[in-house]
Write a structure and sequence with these properties.
alpha+beta, Lipocalin, 8-stranded antiparallel barrel, 8 strands, globular
């Protein structure tokens, strides 16, 4: 049996090419515009997150074509604009990394890449709230839906630093949970929440 043996130089060239591809983002760095895109091109971990996002976005587009999910193009354009605005942040790199991680988690949840856990139901003031905790996303994510509303009332929030318990922050929403009790800030309104089995 004969085996193909490549010269050492060819192997090194192939390895170098693979490493170069692995450290580049999904977009053409020769056409990078602005501080944020340049940063991504020069930062291998951010480039890796960009490729991961591109893969999640491609899967989302497949789901649109096959299963009639909502088209993500408009949301993605808005996200790119927000990511590029990270140059205004005190820590540009941290802003970009957080932006990528949160968008990847959103796509994974919204387009069926994650198994949906059972919701936890809370009574928050006079509002019933269903919360689905996705522990497998990075960062962990909570999807909150006021009962009796459509998906337009749904909010995605991401795990944030907290001294105790678990605190999730989303747009105009904050949810802090500890041992069955929770505090909810919903569009400026603060409420205390309890899970039904703790009442």
């Amino acid at each position: 049996m004969s085996r193909l043996i490549l010269p050492i130089g060819s192997l090194l060239l192939a390895l170098t090419f693979d490493l170069a591809l692995a450290s580049t983002p999904s977009f053409d760095c020769a056409k990078a515009e602005g501080e944020v895109e340049t940063l991504i091109c020069n930062d291998p971990p951010l480039s890796a997150l960009d490729r991961k996002l591109a893969a999640a976005y491609a899967r989302a587009l497949e789901r649109v074509a096959q299963d009639g999910y909502q088209d993500p193009h408009a949301m993605q354009r808005g996200w790119v604009k927000g990511r590029n605005d990270c140059w205004k942040a005190a820590d540009t790199r941290a802003c970009v990394e957080t932006s990528y991680r949160e968008r990847i988690a959103e796509l994974q949840i919204q387009y069926g890449d994650m198994e949906v856990p059972s919701p936890v139901n809370y009574r928050c003031g006079d509002m019933d709230l269903a919360v689905v905790f996705y522990r497998e996303t990075d960062p962990p994510t909570a999807v909150m839906t006021p009962m009796g509303t459509n998906d337009e009332g749904q909010v995605i929030a991401f795990l944030a630093r907290s001294g105790s318990g678990a605190r999730y922050e989303g747009r105009n929403v904050s949810f802090w949970e500890h041992q069955g009790e929770a505090m909810l800030t919903w569009w400026g309104k603060e409420m205390t929440c309890k899970a039904p089995n703790t009442e």
